[in-house]
């Protein structure tokens, strides 16, 4: 039972530990899905590039904000 608690705690830290990153990633996924659904003439490769760019931008923004927060006294 102790191992199960440790596994669940690690999964929580991995996926929900940083709420801003989780929310931003969900927003990128939802925006990409909406674009794919409402723009039927969109090439799937372009949608993939948009998704990649959104994920990279999210990662850079959240990481930079965390670095700035950790440098403050």
Write the topology of this structure.
Blueprint: H1 2-16, H2 19-38, H3 44-71
Helix pairs in contact: 2-3
Compact summary:
The protein has one domain. 86% of the residues lie in helices and 0% in strands.
Description of the molecule:
By secondary structure, the protein is an all-alpha fold. The protein has one domain. The protein is built from three helices and no strands. Helix 2 packs antiparallel against helix 3 (44-71). It is flat and about 50 Å long.
**What is the beta-strand fraction?**
under 5%
Number of domains: 1
The total beta strand count reads 0
Sketch the major β-sheet: none
Keywords: Membrane, Transmembrane, Transmembrane helix
Transmembrane segments: 21-40, 46-68
């Amino acid at each position: 039972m102790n191992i199960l608690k440790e596994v669940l705690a690690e999964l929580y830290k991995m996926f929900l530990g940083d709420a801003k990153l989780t929310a931003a990633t969900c927003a990128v996924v939802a925006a990409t899905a909406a674009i794919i659904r409402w723009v039927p003439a969109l090439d799937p490769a372009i949608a993939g590039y948009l998704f990649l760019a959104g994920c990279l931008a999210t990662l850079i923004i959240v990481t930079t904000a965390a670095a700035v927060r950790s440098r403050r006294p």
